[in-house]
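Example for tutorial group B:
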């Protein structure tokens, strides 16, 4: 069977705040497997940010302060090939090199995907999906700008810190947005070209029909005239 990998990316700050609110309400990822190269990370490689059953009620400050928080740069990590950097073992290579390898890998994997969309561009995402797979959704996508993340008011300093914690995701999102809009414009141009080709083809057929009708009319007139001459 043929498998098509697709994904949806989101503005890193909004996504981070949304995950914090999710965790604050008691959500955990204990059932999620972080298997890489055939094994799960050790507790030394991936310490927990909290003790107890969950991290419910944590403040945004606590959420940002945990250095092991997997919410940081989650989109890059989930799209990249972690085996290239030794999975969750941070001692395999220098941090700067690790970050570059992860970001490059995430960009390459994203580019190779059959389709990806952006939460902030729901209508364009629907359009691209339908054109890519030649399928139509029953109802149109709705752009919701009011989310749990949008209801969180943060000051500029907090905004900057979240961006710093997710600096890889910020760069990936800029890359994804540029690539997404390029694909959208390409599909729109292709659609316009196809529509223009069809119009030209229709005009060509119409002109041929009109020419045929004129020819029939001329032949009919000539036949009538000759018939009248013979009768006269």
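The residue assignment follows.
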């Amino acid at each position: 069977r043929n498998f098509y990998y697709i994904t949806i990316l989101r503005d890193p700050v909004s996504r981070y705040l949304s995950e914090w609110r999710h965790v604050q309400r008691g959500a955990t990822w204990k059932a999620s497997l972080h298997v890489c190269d055939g094994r799960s990370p050790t507790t030394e490689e991936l310490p927990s940010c909290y003790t107890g059953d969950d991290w419910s009620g944590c403040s945004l400050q606590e959420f940002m302060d945990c250095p092991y928080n997997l919410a940081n740069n989650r989109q890059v990590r989930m799209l990249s090939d972690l085996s290239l950097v030794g999975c969750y073992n941070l001692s395999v290579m220098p941090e700067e090199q690790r970050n570059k390898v992860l970001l490059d890998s995430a960009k390459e994997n994203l580019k190779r995907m059959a389709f990806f969309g952006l939460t902030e561009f729901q209508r364009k995402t629907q359009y691209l999906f339908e054109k890519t797979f030649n399928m139509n959704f029953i109802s149109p996508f709705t752009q919701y700008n009011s989310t749990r993340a949008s209801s969180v008011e943060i000051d500029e300093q907090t905004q900057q810190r979240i961006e710093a914690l997710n600096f890889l995701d910020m760069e990936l999102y800029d890359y994804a947005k540029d690539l997404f809009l390029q694909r959208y414009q390409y599909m729109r141009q292709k659609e316009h070209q196809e529509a223009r080709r069809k119009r030209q083809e229709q005009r060509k057929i119409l002109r041929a029909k009109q020419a045929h009708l004129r020819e029939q009319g001329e032949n009919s007139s000539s036949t009538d005239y000759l018939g009248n001459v013979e009768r006269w």
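The beta strands are 6-9, 115-118. Compare this with the pattern of hydrophobic and polar residues in the output above.
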